[in-house]
Give the backbone structure.
Amino acid sequence: MKTQRILVPVDGSEMSNFALHEADKLASQSEGELTLMFVHEPATVHLMDDNYPEPKEMTETLMETAQNCMEKLLATLTTPEGHRHSVIERGSPAQTIVDHSADYDLIVMSTHGHTGLKQIHLGSVAERVVRGAHCDVLVVKQSGDAVN
């Protein structure tokens, strides 16, 4: 399998970090490029018949925080510095990942990122990426983790 360009969606969860380090091993072994992607889905508050978008200041703060987190994650990788990159996008996580997938040879992601109700949602992100991606997708699961 050609793995010259690897995309890793990250959300800061333990499972996401596990997938990142598995992808880092693959990129290092194949001397490939590794791109971390964080996708922020802006919140919308529904009140009665009106929708209120996430305040601009909140979005800017979240994006700055995401950039700082990405820089810290990049610094932990063994993939050579010139071969690791990060991308921060806004939108639907699954659709954004699928939209970028044609530019990569492989997507490495975790089965679930968060627990509780978010786990159900993020598990469906992996499923939608597997179904829609234009490249191979490796879905990793940390050993010992049970899916409820």
Notes: The chain has one domain: 5-140. Helices lie at 14-30, 56-75, 93-100, 117-132. Residues 52 and 75 are 37 Å apart (CA to CA). Residues 5-140 form a domain with the Rossmann fold fold (CATH 3.40.50.620).
